[in-house]
Each structure stands twice: as structure tokens, then as C-alpha cells.
Amino acid sequence: MKILNLIIVIFFTIILSACSGLPKKEVYSDNQAYNQKRTQGFYESIIKQDTVDLSKLNLFFTQMPKGGDLHHHYSGTIYAETYLDWVKAKGWFIDLCTLKIIKSSSDATKSCPALTVDNLLKNEVAYRKLLTLWSDKDYDNHYHDQPAPDTNFFNTFGYFRPISNEYMDKGLAILKNRAIKENVSYIETMLTRVGVKTSSYFTKKDINTFDQELHSAKSQQEVNKVLDQISKALDQNKLFSDKIDSFVKMIETNHTGLDDGQFTMRYQTYTVRVLNPVQIFADLYSGYLAVEKSPLVVGVNIVAPENNHVALSDYTLHMQMYNYLLNKYPNVNRALHAGELTLGMVRPKDLDFHINEAMSIAKAQRIGHGIDIPYEKDSIALLKDLKDNAVIEINLTSNQFILGVEKEEHPYQIYASYGVPMVISTDDSGVSRNNLSNEYVLLASRYKPDYTQIKKYVYNSIKYSFLSAEDKQKQTSILDKKFELFEKNMATLAAKMH
Q: Which CA distances in Å does 380 have to 50, 418, 419, 460, 479?
């Protein structure tokens, strides 16, 4: 009997030993963990193919919750066709020769017809040409004489600028509805300048004197002394404070009804970096004061082509203006377009300091684009500073079109390898004729980040937004619920597709 028992023990020991070498079946604590795993597997099965199935990626990312779009320009996100609807509603015209908006037929170019929008639409050649001037549509399909891509891109704003703010409430509602359909729950859009005009507060002589003093200043302290004089004069001018109040009221009026359980919107104001120094400071200062007055206005930016000759020559001065205002208003958020440059676009000396100064002088919290990082001086130390203190707003479509930087040339992989926080955003999706889902498609098909990293970028868009702490918590809870449903649906789809 003892021998028989021993034989049985030995037999089962051998069986158990053999079984221990078999693959273990994964055990999930709940359905949510299972769905997340299946969703991850489905996504990675797409991107790991030699030829990535873009149709499946489009489906995947259109359905995926995307949190927020943080680098977003209001006027550049409305489509040209919508602007034409508004031109028609105003009873305005299109100059057939220039394809620009005119408010009266008498304003047309000499010997050139002024077309109503209806007549424009009947003229297929003129209409198609207008779309190529008011957006990037069909740019790559044309091989005749045409402006450089960056010129084409930035020129578009001049065409639709007369109409862009005329129906702002309708425009914001369009963006909200588009976002909800695309599973975007938050937009932080660069809406418009406050609208102050220095000619209303200073004589031409005073403006010229201040500009000269700012240009000749040799240090932050000297810049501050001049800015003290300008800000003091502005503070004493009722027209200046009235304009800020009017701006805040305009935003509050146009914002009515936008926020709800599905969607939230907030606004940045900005200055345009190609203007004279006094005007740029007045824009920034009024923007900071607007942020102080309204919880809807959450940050101040600086926009326009970074390779413009004024933008290049005055870049450090602009950063010093941010530094000055930071010391006066430390709680106002700062997102800056910086490093939207590449080799050959500017002289080498203009390629090595823009992100550096946006960080070291302006103390930016978020950097828009950040493309010239490979060429910046002390780039290793800069990467550490970015990792510890800032976030990069990645805009793949506009970087490809404006700068010609794409795929392996794009510094996304530098930032990702170093662990710099990033968010994925659209920039000007009406001009580029794309959306946030497509930005994720480009990201996934080019660089193949895993699903965990994709989700991190989505949650980053709330974490690094300029929302209040309370609103961030609400938006994060919304994302949690949306991802739970999304992963359930993707797990079901994955099972059917396999």
C-alpha cells in the first residue's frame, strides 16, 4: 500500500511539473480590465503590420475619446465654406479678381466683377480657386506657380479675416457640435486679440519713443522701466479698461450655452508677433487683465509666422515682456508658439534660442510646436527643463505643411524618448482640412506608440490644460467613463474582426 501511494504521489508530481510549463491563461479581475486588454491588442495588431491599415486606424481614433484640443485657433478652424455662408448672410461680395471679401460691389477692383456668393458658386473655376486661397485644399495637387506652403497657409487668414468674428456665437456652436461628434470633450481655443489700439492711447511720437527705448534696452531691468511707463499710462486711460471690459463681455455673451455635460470650452487671447513693440505689449497686458477678470479666459499666447523679420529681430524683447507680466501676474497662464522653425528657413543664428528663451525668460508652461529643438543651444539641458516644467503641443499636419517637417524628421521621437510631456492637437483644422482624430492617425501610423502611451496623451490634454482644478477633475471623470464604453465597444469589434 505504501508503495502504491508513493507511485501515485510521484505520478501527480510529474503531471503538475509538466503543467507548470504551459502558458498560463490570463485572469482578469473584471470586464473593464479585459476590455482594455482586448482594445490594446486590437490597436497594436493594426500598427504592427508592415502596411498599416489606415482605414482601421481612422475608425479606431474617430471612436476613441480624445479629451481636449489645446493648440487650437478659432478662425483657422472654421471651414472656408462656412465663411462663405456668412458672407452671403451679410449680403457682402467676393471680388472676382482677388477673391477677397468686399462689403459693397463698389469696392471691387476696377474692371472686375463683384460676385454674390451664389454667383461665385456657379463659377466652378473661381470657387475652386477660392478654396485653395482660403485654405490648404488641393495644394499638393497643383503644380503651377503658387506661393510657398508657409506663405499659402498664413495668407489664408487675410482672406477670411473680415468675416471671421461676425458670427462668433454660431462659429463656436459649430466647433462644439463637431467636437462632440468626434469625441472631443474640451477645446481651448485662441479666439481673438482683446482689440486695444495704441493709437487710441498714445500719440504717434510717444509710440515711436517707446519703441526706440525698448529696442535699445540692454537688459530685463531696462525693458521693465519702459514697460512700467507704458502700463502706468494704460492704467490711467479709461478707454483701455473699457475695451477689456467689452472684450470679456463679448466672450461671455458668445459663450452662452456652450458648456454642458458633454463639452467645455475655454479661451486664450494673444498678440501678433509681427507688430511694433508698444502694440504687442498693449495686447499682452490687456490679455493678462482679461484673464484676471474672467474665468473663461485662461491664458495668453503669441502668434504669427516666427520667421517674419520683425518676429525674429524682436523675439527676445517679446519674451522679456512675458517676463515682466509674469512678475506682476504670476497666476496668468502662458502658452507660446516657439520653435516653429527648421533648418534653411532662417539663418543659423535664429534657430538656436527660441525655445530656450520661451522657457528661461518667458517661463512658458506650454510650447506650441517646438520643432527646432535639435538645433537649440544646450538642447540636452533644455530637454530636462521641458520635461520638468513644460508641455509640448504636437501639431503634425501643420508642421508637415508649413515647415516640410514630417515622419523621421519630426522631433516627436526626441521628446518621447526623453519623457517630455506632450499633447496632440490640430492647430488650424479648417485651413488644413483635418481633425484631431487624423492627428492621432498620423501619430500612430508614423511612430507606433503603444496604447498606454496614446491614452496618456489623451489624459495629458486635460492634465495640462488651463482649466481650474475642479474642472480638470470633472473632465478626467468624464474621460474615465468614455474610455470604459469605448474599450467595451472595441473589445466587441476586435472579437468580430478576428
A: 33, 9, 12, 23, 34
* SS3 label, residue 364: coil
CATH top-level class of 68-74+166-485? alpha beta
Tell me the β-bridge partners of 302. 271
Going from the first residue of the chain to its last (498 residues), give the mean pLDDT of each consecutive group of 10, the final group possibly shorter: 47 45 46 94 93 95 98 96 96 95 89 93 94 87 66 82 91 97 97 96 97 98 98 97 98 97 97 98 98 98 97 98 98 98 95 98 98 97 98 97 94 98 96 96 97 98 98 97 96 87
Q: Which are the contacts of 221, defined by CB distance < 8 A and separation ≥ 6?
A: none
Bridge partners for 300 per DSSP:
269, 334
The Cα–Cα gap between 416 and 412 comes to 6
DSSP conformation letters of 440-470: HHHHHHHH---HHHHHHHHHHHHHTSS--HH
Domain ranges across the chain: 68-74+166-485, 80-164
CB atoms within 10 A of CB 236: 10
Instruction: Tell me how crowded residue 88 is: count the other CB atoms within 10 A of its CB.
Output: 16
Please tell me the distance from the alpha carbon of residue 422 to that of residue 459, in angstroms, as a whole number: 10
Can you say whether residue 304 is alpha, beta or left, with left for phi > 0 and alpha for psi between -120 and 50 degrees?
left
First to last CA, the chain: 53
CA proximity to 71, closest of 418, 369, 406: 369
How much is the CA Rg of the chain, to the nearest whole Å?
27
